[in-house]
Amino acid sequence: MFHIRPLKVEDVPAITQIEAVSRPTPWSEKQFGDELNNSNSHGKVLLEEAQVIGYVIPWFVAGEIQIQNIVVAPSHRKRGLGELLLNVALSNGVDLGCTAGYLEVRESNKPAISLYQKYQFKIAGRREAYYRDGETALLMNLGPFTTGSETESYQRLIKKQAESLKITIQFRLA
Ligand SMILES: CC(C)(COP(=O)(O)OP(=O)(O)OC[C@H]1O[C@@H](n2cnc3c(N)ncnc32)[C@H](O)[C@@H]1OP(=O)(O)O)[C@@H](O)C(=O)NCCC(=O)NCCS
């Protein structure tokens, strides 16, 4: 059984371990801890029974959803869980009145780029040598939704995608 809830301080050691094997320049325990003291940050963790197996860290700031980090543990990938986490972050942001999205992603990170494109993020620019190891970042944008009907149609897409996720999930956000 899968369960999604807000990030808590006791999750930080587990997510730092997943992070260390998932990203070329992983966040530290301190960086994750700082998110808990940032009122713009709305981190969520995904658990299977009591074990943390993924997380998403979106910021909701100035009407924009900024995806800072999203990871599924290597042994649990390709089962729709990354999509679920992104979907939860986007639904949450749209429900709170966000009308646009923004993120940066490594140019070589095809799984993540494909995931974001599935949710209608578009490549909006490149930053050469953006990362410490010299890799280029792609900037991806969602929206902005300039009318209420555009936002509503995106909300419908997120809901439709949530319904079509193939795995059985019980999650609550509180
Ligand atoms: C990106 C990541 C979160 C995707 O998680 P996941 O649970 O494996 O993804 P899902 O099973 O939900 O797949 C959803 C979509 O993502 C894309 N995707 C996922 N894995 C992919 C792969 N190996 N190759 C290409 N596309 C892929 C596809 O569009 C897929 O949709 P589809 O099943 O209809 O083809 C995961 O690969 C990960 O944790 N990567 C390391 C951390 C990282 O790079 N995070 C992003 C930058 S911060």
Plain-language structure description:
- The chain has 174 residues and is α+β, with helices and mostly antiparallel strands.
- It has a single domain, classed as 3-Layer(aba) Sandwich (Aminopeptidase).
- It has helices at 12-20, 29-36, 81-95, 110-118, 148-164, and strands at residues 2-6, 44-48, 51-61, 64-72, 100-106, 122-127, 137-142.
- It has a seven-stranded mixed β-sheet, with helices on both faces.
- The longest helix has 17 residues, at 148-164.
- The protein is globular, with a radius of gyration of 15 Å.
- Bound molecules: coenzyme A.
- Coenzyme A binds next to β4, α3 and α4.
List keywords for this structure.
174 residues, 7-stranded mixed β-sheet, alpha+beta, single chain, Aminopeptidase, 7 strands
Briefly say what this structure is.
With 174 residues, the chain is α+β, with helices and mostly antiparallel strands.
Termini distance?
A: 17 Å
**Amount of helix:** 25-40%
CATH topology: Aminopeptidase
Query: Could you describe the largest sheet, including whether it forms a barrel?
Result: 7 strands, mixed
Give the CATH superfamily. Gcn5-related N-acetyltransferase (GNAT)
Low-confidence stretches: none
What pattern of helices and strands is seen along the backbone?
EHHEEEHEHEEH
So, CATH architecture? 3-Layer(aba) Sandwich
| Strand segment tally | 7
Number of helical stretches of at least 4 residues? 5
Structural domain tally: 1
- Which ligands, by name, code or SMILES, are bound? coenzyme A
Please give the order of strands in the largest beta sheet: 1-2-3-4-5-7-6
CATH class: Alpha Beta
